[in-house]
Amino acid sequence: MKIRRSFMRGQEVQIDYWPSFTDLMTGIVFLFILLISVYFVQGVRNSRIQEQLVKEIKKEQVIEVFETKALIAEELSLFPAGVKEGTQIVKRNTDNTISIIGDIVFPSGEFRSSAIRPEAQVALTELANRFEKILQNPKYAPYIHMILIEGHTDDVPHKSSDGLQNHNWNLASDRALSIAHYMFKANPALAQDEYAKYFAVGGYAQYRPAVEYKDLDEVEIKKAREQNRRISFQIILKEEALKTQIMEYIQITK
Which of 41, 62, 211, 245 has the fewest beta carbons under 10 Å from its own? Predict the structure, then answer.
């Protein structure tokens, strides 16, 4: 109940009264508008925060996808079995491919072959196990299109054990295939369709050297040839998966 003061004939008279229905409705409407305003402002603020969080999450996802090759290369290259007598058997290259030194894995000399040396088997078995773990990892598997096993030789013509001269493409391809067969044998899970579908082999012969021979002396050429005789693992990502992540990020940042 409120008190209304009235002045009549110079006298102050107090009149008690109850707020009218109109007064009550006006107050309720005002309170409702105030609450709606506060809710709207808070909603806009929360929406902006949520939008920013979505952008940050998507940004992290895009970065993660582009780092997939680097992360896989790091996991494949860093393990004790990859080192023999101080020499890195399995190493990561600047382009995030993985290479195995050819002379440690295969016989060198005049008659070269694709037979794997016993001392290299421990490292190859560990490599096979790591490939299985990578293909099981939901962080990597959705973006992997192919694991290409590449055979590389030096520029010296290949001679087989029967003395016949064969093209280095034969030797390079045979060595890549030999690595694939050994890994599938060492880890039978890789031979299953679920994982085998990712693997492919190819031979580049001497045409993609790790070190060019131009302007090198004899000693340097010999070292270059040692580095060029290698097996490389190329992780090829799915273009569509990359494109999808990029387009989603572009859409939410417009």
Answer: 41
